[in-house]
Design a protein that fits this description.
Keywords: Antiport, Calcium, Calcium transport, Ion transport, Membrane, Transmembrane, Transmembrane helix, Transport, Vacuole. It is a multi-pass membrane protein. Has a role in promoting intracellular calcium ion sequestration via the exchange of calcium ions for hydrogen ions across the vacuolar membrane. Involved also in manganese ion homeostasis via its uptake into the vacuole. The strands form 2 sheets. The chain has a two-stranded antiparallel ribbon. A two-stranded antiparallel sheet has the order 3-4. It is globular and about 80 Å long. 70% of the residues lie in helices and 2% in strands. Strand 1 (188-189) and strand 2 form a beta hairpin. With 472 residues, the protein is mainly α. It has one domain (49-270, 303-454): NCX, central ion-binding region (A middle domain of Talin 1, Up-down Bundle). It is built from 18 helices and 4 strands.
């Protein structure tokens, strides 16, 4: 039988020195602490070492790095930020129009996410009322910047299509995906299926506002058709007068909607679960639209970059969005000629994806967690902002800069919008949703998108030349 000697005891042997193995190797603990500190310095978006230093230089540098780090790590789509300088270079050096459009298209997506992050950081410090107003202003900032640049460039069809596309993408695509994936996850058992629920009062209120915005497009289209049949020579100026008057009324109604949601009836906009459990809950959940849902969907311990840093980020990102959007819009004409697709399809499908990608993903994630009130806030709330706020605002901007932007959309666009609002109203009126309703909304969106894709590039240009240069 062989004999195997035991290891020789020395000064590092535990128990002999009355210490543990871990404490016998202090270098390992120090190395672990250094790794933890390095990880916090690079990846921790809540706290950065050095922000509480007594040295002003160290403290300032730490705050700058913290703001940069928190902004870059705020959303997974920020990996696309590398396309921002490439897109600017592509536009400045007149690369191929397809390359300029594609690169700047992907560049605006992360900029939109950063813009939303900075807006939330500022809104957190202002309280519900002012924070909600800020969210309403900057919630659709990307679409507004792109549209203003396109409007200044005379791309009225692109502006109208992008506004309609933003509304339809939120009403049909986003809400459809929320209903579909949320319904599949929470479908229950075979023979005993369940539905997800949300506040029916909120759905009815917002759908009524969407029906009003639909009427604001149907009436100018109908008046234009009647004046055309009668051979009126002043039909273009009549449409512009009607559109500008309607735009002012819609903006006033939007302001009333903000007061209704944020102040007088904020209790109606609380999540349904809180209405059932806590009748006296404060109106903290009564923020506007998709930005509120994004804030509540995030973890409890969120990144905080402070209002000053957030304002700087907001200004820088807005400038970058304007530059990328300028190059993007400038390449549209060449894209239309080379790819033989309509401007309506670019505005209806592609541009809304740019501005809403991050919020779309957030809405689906929230729906998977069975928080349908938040998902509805993303979908319908954002649509209300576009229909009652951004679109009338662009009509007023066109009036100021001498561009004949009107609420007279092409007939097919108007009908598509009216049908979509009708289907959505019937879908959400009971305050419940399931995956079949989601599939129906997605199906309608795909049908409309295919219809615009199949439309020749010059099919919707007929009424625009008659309006150009005839603003009153």
């Amino acid at each position: 039988m062989s004999y195997r000697p035991s290891p020789r005891a020395d000064e590092h042997t535990p128990l002999i020195n009355g210490d543990s193995a871990a404490s016998a190797q202090p270098g390992r603990d120090a190395q672990r602490q250094r790794k933890t500190g390095l990880r916090a310095f690079l990846l921790d978006t809540v706290h950065t070492p050095g922000t509480d230093s007594e040295s002003f230089a160290v403290r300032s540098a730490a705050h700058v790095w913290h703001a940069t780090k928190a902004t870059l790590l705020s959303n997974y789509v920020n990996v696309l930020l590398v396309t921002v300088p490439i897109g600017i270079i592509a536009g400045a050096f007149n690369w191929n129009s397809t390359a300029v459009f594609t690169i700047n298209f992907f560049a605006i997506i992360p900029l939109a996410a950063v813009l939303s992050f900075a807006t939330e950081a500022i809104a957190d410090k202002l309280g519900d009322a002012l924070g909600g107003l800020l969210n309403a202003t900057f919630g659709n900032a990307v679409e507004m910047i792109v549209s203003i640049i396109a409007l200044k460039d005379g791309q009225i069809e692109v502006v109208q299509s992008s506004m309609l596309g933003s509304i339809l993408s939120n009403l049909l695509l986003v809400m459809g995906m929320c209903f579909l994936f949320g319904g599949l996850v929470h479908r229950g058992v075979n023979g005993g299926g369940t539905e997800q629920s949300f506040s029916g009062a909120v759905a009815q209120t917002t759908c009524s506002l969407m029906a009003l915005s639909s009427a604001s497009l149907v009436i100018p289209a109908t008046l234009y058709a009647v004046l055309s049949q009668n051979g009126s020579e002043d039909k273009n100026s009549s449409i512009l007068i009607l559109s500008r008057g309607t735009a002012i009324i819609l903006l006033l109604l939007y302001v009333m909607y903000l007061v209704f949601q944020l102040r007088t009836h904020s209790n109606l906009f609380r999540p349904k679960a809180q209405q059932d459990q806590q009748a006296s809950q404060s109106d903290q959940e009564a923020n506007i639209g998709r930005v509120s849902a994004t804030m509540e969907a995030q973890p409890e311990e969120e990144a905080d970059i402070g209002p000053v840093a957030a304002t700087i980020v907001l200004v820088v990102v807005t400038v970058l969005v304007a530059i990328c959007a300028d190059y993007l819009v400038g390449s549209i004409d060449d894209i239309v000629e080379k790819a033989n697709i309509s401007k309506a399809f670019i505005g209806l499908v592609l541009i809304p994806i740019v501005g809403n990608a991050a919020e779309h993903v957030t809405a689906v994630v929230v729906a998977l967690r069975d928080k349908m009130d938040l998902a509805m806030g993303v979908a319908i709330g954002s649509s209300i902002q576009i229909a009652l706020g951004v679109t009338p605002f662009l009509v007023i901007v066109g009036w100021i800069i001498g561009q004949p932007m009107s609420l007279h959309f092409e007939t097919f666009q108007t009908v598509s919008f009216a049908v979509s609002v009708l289907v959505v109203t019937y879908t959400v009126q009971d305050g419940k949703s399931n995956y079949l309703e989601g599939a129906m909304l997605l199906g309608l969106y795909i049908i409309i998108a295919v219809a615009f894709y199949a439309t020749p590039s010059d099919a919707f240009d007929g009424h625009l030349p008659q309006l150009l240069g005839k603003s009153s």
